[in-house]
Amino acid sequence: MARPRISIVTASLNQADTIASAMESVLNQAGAPVEYIVIDGGSTDGTRGIIERYAEHLAYWISEPDHGQSHALNKGFARATGDVLGWLNADDLLTRGALAVVREVFGGDECDILCGACRYAYADGEARVRGVPARELAMLPIYDPIHQPSCFWRRSLHQRVGGLDEQLHYGMDWDLWLKFARCGARFKVIDDVLSVYRISGRNKTWDGGEQRNREMYGILRRYNRDESLLLTEAAYRLLWPLKRLRRRRPVWFYKVVSSTLRTTMLVALGPMFGFDRVRCCTHPFS
Predict the structure, then answer these.
(1) Which residues contact 115 (CB under 8 A, 6 or more apart)?
(2) Any alpha helices (H) in 187-283, and if so which ranges?
(3) Is residue 116 within 8 Å of residue 192, measured between CB atoms?
């Protein structure tokens, strides 16, 4: 596959503040022609008008009610014809030259899934680059270390696993990686920063609360039958109630208490179950 074609899907709903820059970050990629598909859930805030401005550059777009993000993405991927797939949320960005890197990697036959680094951009101006450490990727069944907007995979693999689980609203990406892993897919990690995750405080992942935590625990149960369940259940019961302290206590108080609990669990249980395993089991609910 010397010159693989890339298809990117964006699902949106009332994201007029960010979708234009997200779309431009895809359409302005140099050296890697892209098939770009936008699925809007029937926005009422002006998002549709913004998409229409870029319509001539899109392979396909539609604005109509759907059944959630997973359903919208599956609609988009069903239209995709590229050899390599990825999705970009309407509040994230691809970095300059990201798809040229993706195209080069998939030009060989060395991987089925590419995992790049991501720049997390916070509302206060702080930015932090996070990669995918090999030791954390090894913990994929109990913790998702992959940065979704920096992840790309072969369409043939996507079709083999049947796409995203439309019953999931928060952890559908983690569930997809796990289905890929079950198929024996080859993961490749690179240090290149392929995307920017813009953290506004209104992101679905960051604002999912207990509903998100329960869904993530359900995915964990789906793919695990070992002590990871017990460790994660313990972390959930200890750490989640502390979230409520944020309403009545200073943030620093919550951070000190939660950090102390996680450290205690790591010191007490690490020698028995492995320090990396315990750390990853406490992460989703911390």
Answers:
(1) 132, 137, 146, 147, 150, 151, 187, 188, 189, 190
(2) 209-223, 227-239, 251-273, 275-282
(3) yes
How many Å apart are CA 114 and CA 83, to the nearest integer?
13
As a dihedral over the C-alpha atoms of residue 131, residue 274, residue 168, residue 198, rounded to 10 degrees, the angle is -30
d(CA 258, CA 286) in angstroms, rounded, equals 7
Question: Which 3 state secondary structure label does DSSP give 116?
Answer: strand
Q: Quick one: 7 exposed, middle or buried, by C-beta within 10 A (0-12, 13-18, 19+)?
A: buried
Q: Which CATH number fits domain 6-199: 1.10.3720.10, 3.90.550.10, 3.40.50.720, 3.40.640.10?
A: 3.90.550.10
Report the predicted TM-score, pTM, of the whole model to 2 decimal places. Answer: 0.84
The answer to whether 115 and 186 have CB atoms below 8 angstroms apart is no
Tens digit of pLDDT at every position of the chain (286 positions):
678 999 999 999 999 999 999 999 999 998 778 999 999 999 999 999 999 999 999 999 999 999 999 999 999 999 999 999 999 999 999 999 999 999 999 998 789 999 999 999 988 888 999 999 988 898 898 889 999 999 999 999 999 999 999 999 999 999 999 999 999 999 999 999 999 999 876 666 555 567 887 888 889 888 877 777 777 777 766 766 666 665 566 666 767 777 887 788 888 888 888 888 787 777 655 4
**Half-sphere exposure at residue 138, Cβ-oriented, CA atoms within 13 angstroms:** 7
Please state the domain extents for the chain: 6-199, 225-285
